[in-house]
Amino acid sequence: MVCLTLRNLEGEVEMMKYQVFRCQVSGKRPRSHNLIPDTWRLKTERGQSILLFAILLPLMSLFLLGILDYMVTNARVMETVAVADLSAHAGAQEITVLPDGTITATQAGNGIAMSYFEAQHPAYAQLVFISCGRHQGRPACLLEAQTRSAGILLPARWITVRAIGYLAHGVTRGDQ
């Protein structure tokens, strides 16, 4: 528990007001030379709020710009991930698995994935490469894209996004 001793702060403020009022009526100088008769504040506190505002305004502005930069960049990355994921799954549906278990990749899978990405990608995203075939021992389509960060506070940079779409057992474009 924290205890703050305020003594008799209210009483002291009233006494300061009374001293200033008494000095104004009688024309005498107040006992404390730090008192300013019109405002009842200490001379050392003048301009304190303006100084605090001048220090905090740039800091808060930088903080808010940083948050805005992060939010816009995060939204861009999430949109690029969604487009890349959809494109990878569309390309994976074109993979054929033969009855003996061999996986054959066709160029149609790469073309379908690329056409899906090109049709839906935002202006700040670009396709790096597509590879449909066997990935990690399973039939899949791997897609890599890049998206540009917002560049509001920090310098703009490219962020790499990788998506992999696996072919579910027995699901191909012909089955739909």
Please write out the topology.
Blueprint: H1 9-26, H2 48-92, E1 96-97, E2 103-104, H3 107-120, E3 125-135, E4 138-148, E5 158-166
Antiparallel strand pairs: 1-2, 3-4, 4-5
Helix pairs in contact: 2-3
Please characterize this protein's 3D structure:
- The chain is an alpha+beta fold and 176 residues long.
- It folds into 2 domains: 9-46, no CATH class; 72-175, no CATH class.
- 44% of the residues lie in helices and 20% in strands.
- A 3-stranded antiparallel sheet has the order 3-4-5, with helices on one face. A two-stranded antiparallel ribbon has the order 1-2.
- A hairpin with a 2-residue loop joins strand 3 (125-135) and strand 4 (138-148).
